[in-house]
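Example with several molecule types.
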Amino acid sequence: MKTINHKTPSVDGKGIMMGRPAFTDDLAEPNSLIVKVLRSPHAFARITKIDTSRARALTGVEIVLTYHDVPRNSFTRAGQGYPEPSPHDKFILDEYVRYVGDEVACVAATSEVIAEKALKLIEVEYEVLEPVLDFESAYQNKNVIHPEDGIREMFPIGFDPKKNVAASYEMHIGDVEQILSKCDVVVDETFYTQAQAHAMLEPHTANARLDYHNRLVMYSSTQTPFHMRRIISQTLELPISKIRLIKPRVGGGFGGKQAMHCEFFVALVTLRTKKPSKMVYTRQEVFESSYTRHPMRIQMRLGAMRDGTLKAIDCHSLSDTGAYGEHALTVFMITGSKVLPLYNKVDAVRFDGRVVYTNHVSAGAFRGYGAIQGNFALESAIDILASKLKMDPLELRRNNMMEEGETSPIFAIMGEGTAGTAMNMDSCKLRYCLDRGAELIGWKDKYPRVQVGPHKVRSVGMAIAMQGSGIPYIDMASATIKLNDDGFYNLMVGATDIGQGSDTVLTQIAAETLMIGVDKVIIYSSDTDLTPFDTGAYASSTTYVSGNAVLKAAKSMKRMLIEEAAHFLEVPVGDIDFDGLKFTAGDKAITLSDMSNKLYYNENQHQLSATESYVGHKSPPPFMAGYVEIELDTETGEYAVLDYVSVVDCGTTLNPMLARGQVEGGIVQGIGMACFEDVKYGTRGKLTSNSFLYYKIPTMLDVKKLTTEFAESYEESGPYGAKSVGEIGIDTPPAAIANAVANAVGVRIAKLPVTPEKIFRGMMLNK
Amino acid sequence: MEVNRYYRPSTLEEAHQTLLQDPKNVLLGGGLWIKKSTPSANVLVDLTAIGLNQIRDLGDRIEVGAMVTQRDFELNPLVRDIDGGILSGAVGQIMGVAFRQLATIGGSIAGRFPFSDVLTPLSALDVTLIFYPHKEISLAEHLNFKGRSSDILTHVIIKKAHGRGYFKKVKTTAMEFAILNIAITLDEGRYRIAIGSRPSAASLAVGAMEIVNEAKKPSISDFERASEKAVEEFLYATTTFAGADYRKALAKAYVRRGLEEVSKR
Amino acid sequence: MKVQFVLNNRHVAFEVDPGEYLADTLRANHVTSVKKACDESACGACTVLLDGRPVLSCSLLTARVEGRSVTTVEAIQDEVDKISDYFGEEGADQCGFCNTGLALTIYALKRELVNPTDEDIKKFVVGNLCRCSGYQAQFKAIKHYLEDSR
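Resulting structure tokens for the full complex:
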């Protein structure tokens, strides 16, 4: 391998650090109208009167839109395969507002100052309704959050809005109650995971203009440009052919941009005024009016025999999707489908529950996508079980966890809102990951705890995890490679680089296959006019699904090149030797550069171009074992994460440094969720954690040490043996840290985040 | 920020007169807090041209101009020298370098912020504040003052001290507000204990101080009693970030530890 | 009001509102390397150098910059080119949104700190938040850059 699994700097890091315009707002038209949105101060209300006349009269205001002025077609903002598994429960603007920060009206003006003034001039009267702010009392609550007509599910997902239900799900294998009744030991614990904010550095933003074809051309900071284009077309009843959507550099998404944000507003403003427009969310809007992770309550029951054999898993969950149902069912199902198969040899397993609406900020996609919530519950419960069995937690896992070549019946049953896809674990190095991680952290010498001072104790904790690689039979990616004169290539992909480095990794795949340097493959991505289709950056699909499309296209191109060379050299195709730069057949030769020039200018002129697509037939999971060492102050409950060890099986690491970056970035986000990140509301439903002053994300001083290694692994179905690595990093810290705290001071925190104050209270109770 | 006029006077007299003219005429310190708290003002008065950004050695005291940035304050050798670097250590924990390069010492003090990591260690030292036109008061007096004033803080006088200092900011991540902060100094056998962010602003734990200052040779049990007294004598309240009981437990642990630390030979 | 200062080694004069912040003035005048990520003095993405020292441009009124010198990455391209090599080596560059502010902070760090310890380095750049990288690769890149620069 020349570039695969070799240190390859990203293709775009230098240009971005050197300050080239690259992000959505850098590319807005300079004279764009500034779009601002008036937002609801109430958690639940109905607009009884809205008067925009004074706002419209203000000099510099170009247009003001209310729910009277926009098409009334329901849609889902979620960027997902079509038809979407999320309910179509959103209107561009509605007479109901369903959370503090929900959209009431939209203004476009010639400056930000005027737009802000205009917002204040819009007169609104509300009938304030009683909000539902506790997800545990949302089901069948007398206050119905979506009483309106015109909303629907695209296919059965358990959508029952009159009962405040966005989705529900049930599956079981075997008879869980019967098996549990025969078990020697049963663990029954209920866990709570909190809402987490993505807190990506680049706020949500989009801009629009009409080009000289009179088409709507938009830049958006999005993870799913093709889905956005479709949703805009359907909702505005504008042919898709009239829309071009471009995703430039994105300053972080993590799922928070896998759904629409301000695209509708800039689209409508530009379509109506014929002028370019732009909107940039304030940080407050990012917190209050975009998305959060789904908070959940998960009851986990495990049944085992005294010899440590796990016999049954019973999991009942409740998920809070907030005001709208984006990603409601799919996140919920992943809580089971990408967690429970870790212990695949049980006799019975059940997973069920529902996703309810509340008047909270809408929950949506967020790295891990249910797996981190489910992992916290399951991996905490496994440690509790180990404790009851008086067994080393590593031993309990070794006895029961997934091994290479095995499968789980859950894979066939649970898919993306519908049935799943059966698959064997052709690559699974979980056992190696578990053993190696234990070695790296020094488990033998540190488990369960070591006293290091009069009030200081050090302990270790761990968790295993799995995720997926794209969505089989649903995620489609494609790639086009074209040859240029002078012998270099353009690689056009729909695949969406949101900072995870897909532009670089996909370039590497093409370069490796075409046996040429990465500097000779110029990638361009995510432009709905110029790049072929790709579902987008989510479900850890880019390396596996988009990568396979690039691999196929590169192979096709290689075939075409060899055929052309055979024609030029007048030899049979089988005689051609190609080393990436030169074609030889005996003592005849022609360079790629010469041949491409001839193909452009002199002889048999035609354009060589290869387009291929890929749809996965399986979703091979990456696996990992995460180990944490903490130092805890037994007087105050404060603790520090001293070291986080990750041993990851993601198949081949196409780009080892970027892969490590994905793991470590995920680990630190997971540590944030485990230790202190917390989306909090006041009593009337307004976010109190709506700024970086109050919502804390990890800093460089908070991360003492990260140790990351990759297992030797190869997934046959993946490009050059790769699986995914984008999400797996985030899943283990909550359980690993909760387990470490339990090992340190015997306090079991079942409600995230694991804060010093909770530990302190636990210690006091234990006394 | 909506502002009608930006004004950079060359004398304190001009600045003061402007502030007296209109309650919507506001002083610009570092400009960080005002961005959040004051969406609009009439005249913004910037003291940058008045020469208040110096730190001077006055022999037994140092004089810090109100416009000295937190960063310059933190790095200054005279400040570093005070009680083992307690002030530099405390100020150096505030946000990041680019934040402290703008924030001013005067702004931190005039604002009387309860979470302030500047006020708590200063409260454990001898500090006098000079205001224009004619006022010289102790820091404690200033912190107790409840009303509004158009007097301009111009200088902070800190008595030099070559004893021991301890500062603890209780927080989870590196860049957040303290849920409790504690400063303890030991100068010439005399202890001072200041506790802030309870959530209320820094003040001296006089009861706790009495216990350790009256003991001839303060022992661990004196430190324990003092820390218990520090818990009793203040109001600790519950906020979204920490419960009252937890704050008390933190105060007890860290006052004791701080006293042990500064008393080490 | 008119404000005159030196921007990236050139004398400039901009017409600004008295309450306008430097980040907005710079972005409106095509210096798009300056990023606004939070606009509330908390994240460091908007860092520029004022007379060579890092400040938050979202919190600095342009009016205050009169007669002073402002530097963004456009003026220190050779050095940022080198710094980005180290980031590329460690795979520390992900979305890049925090990178321009961070590069300026590193530039200032190199000039301000003599023989910094690991802790000194971390304390100097702690104000530049990053949500993508988990910081370890960034730290290694910065450390190697400083070591190789001596």
